[in-house]
Amino acid sequence: MAVDSTQIGKKYSLWINGEAVPGQHGETFPITNPATGDVITHVAKATREDVDQAVMVAREALEKGKWATWPASKRSQILFKIASIMRERLSDLVQLEVLNTGKTVSAAKGQVYQAIEDFELYAGAITTIQGTTKSVPKGFFHYSVKEPVGVCAQIIPWNYPLMMAAWKVAPALAAGCTIILKPASLTPLTAYALAEICHEAGVPKGVLNVITGSGADIGSYLAEHPGVDKVAFTGETSTGKDIMAKASQTLKRVTLELGGKSPNIVFADADLEGAINGSIYGIYYNTGQSCEARSRLLVQEEIYDQFVEQFVEKTKQLRIGDLWNQASHVGSIISREQWEVIDSYVKSAIVEGATVLCGGRTPDGESFAQGYWYEPTVIVDVTSNMKVVQEEIFGPVVVIQKFATEQEAIQLANDSYYGLAAAVWTTDHAKAHRVTSQLKAGVLMVNNPFSTFPGLPFGGYKQSGFGRELATESLDLYLETKSVLSYTGPKPLNPFQL
Ligand code: NAD
After folding, report:
1. Residues 330-349: pLDDT tens digits?
2. pTM of this prediction?
3. Atom 28 in ligand 1: which residue has the minimum CA distance?
4. Which region is the signal sequence (predicted)?
């Protein structure tokens, strides 16, 4: 399928109070297709005054509107309707996502499907929101109720734009919250599309607002804004720390989904071919621009040489480019800046004494002369203290290390300040679960490269953040518990005997 960038056509405004608005200063910034480097549209640049406006309407919608007090079944119907409109517009959403991110059509399609399923998941889960009544001394009666946490700022990254928006917007809407969504400046297009769909599905004005602009300016302002009750953030660990510090000034609720440097442990008894195929997917899916990318490959010494040889051979066969071809595996890097970051990590590894077995460059060919492309890269001869082993590269680059024993594999795997995901490949299931029980990570995979399904909790240990998204229990992140204790005697209690 060939898609003309000009199909995007329109200029994008902010979305505040159920309508497209230009932003108070009328400024815009360009949006680029990273596969070609072409500017494809312009987007409104919000000012702090626009943020104030969005927070004000979100608060009004929370306190004076009906969203939070409607029966759960009504909110549920609207969430199902959002999912249904998204299904009708699947092809438009996929096209927008491919044009704006440079990802392959198959990756984009999978992510749009997951975004749809998130809305269906929370549409169903709304009815699980419930309070309790506890056993209390005779004469007392107790109940608790769940209430929406309030006005939520949701700040998301560029790697899975629509999916990350859905992970945050769907549970917040289900819980009855109101929202200011701030997509990454590089990839705001599907966030606008989602806002329009929510509006069409019946989400009242002011409940979901979208603002675009600089993270350091308006993102940061949102994190400290006294009118915001909760910040849900996905992005880099360093940004998460900044947001948490700013949010602490007004003790906002915070959830953080942050970076990763996830290990992928292959034992000598693994199904070799399956482990190689799964490990290749684990790092190069979404061009390695995944928080859960298994970017540290740990291979047991008995199979190390054989594994590395076959891994490199298959990596070289990955189909890169031709984003609209369903059979393509690897897309472009999101921006020139990110390309430079990736390349500088690879160069630093060489300087530190590592060996690059493949990749480490722009692929050959005219179609890669424009845009930002990087060959899938394999680095060996690394030591644990190297930057490429410790730091998140966020690109199609894997480092491979050798281990001798189970204990050494666990020690190497846990030798990171991140703790998002980890995978284990072995035919010994007792060993698989013995090892997973000792890995310090929130999302574990056994003989399987998939890390997320709607309904399964997703989130990190250590500096990969806290709070779990994507599960029904994630609704709790958007709810407060109110506990009510009453006395049922004929006269109120008088403990001071006054
Ligand atoms: P980023 O931290 O640079 O930006 C994320 C968002 O925060 C953007 O919307 C950005 O505009 C905004 N932002 C930037 N500085 C800010 C500030 N000072 N205050 C408030 N907001 C600010 O991250 P990115 O480069 O867009 O995304 C890549 C990162 O996201 C990687 O580290 C990746 O691992 C992480 N990520 C994590 C998960 C997860 O679920 N754990 C999922 C996807 C991506």
Report:
1. 999 999 999 999 999 999 99
2. 0.97
3. 235
4. none
Ligand 1 pocket, residue 236 CB under 6 Å: yes
Cα 98 from Cα 197, distance rounded (Å): 19
Amino acid at 144: S
What b/e string do you get for 318-349 counting C-beta neighbours within 10 Å, with b at 16 or more?
A: bebbebeeeebbbbbbbbeebbeebbebbeeb
pLDDT tens across 92-140, in order?
A: 999 999 999 999 999 999 999 999 999 999 999 998 999 999 999 999 9
Taking phi first (over 0 means left), then psi (-120 to 50 degrees means alpha), and beta for anything else, what does residue 80 get? alpha
Could you tell which of 29, 101, 155 is best to mutate to test the pocket of ligand 1, judged by most ligand atoms within 8 Å of the CB?
Answer: 155
**C-beta 239 within 6 A of ligand 1:** yes
CA quadruple 275, 277, 279, 281: dihedral positive or negative? negative
Alpha carbons 88 and 83: distance in angstroms, whole number: 9
Sign of CA dihedral 34, 279, 263, 461: positive
Q: Which domains does the chain have, with CATH numbers?
A: 5-258+464-483 (3.40.605.10), 263-446 (3.40.309.10)
* Measured distance CA(147)–CA(485) in Å, rounded: 17
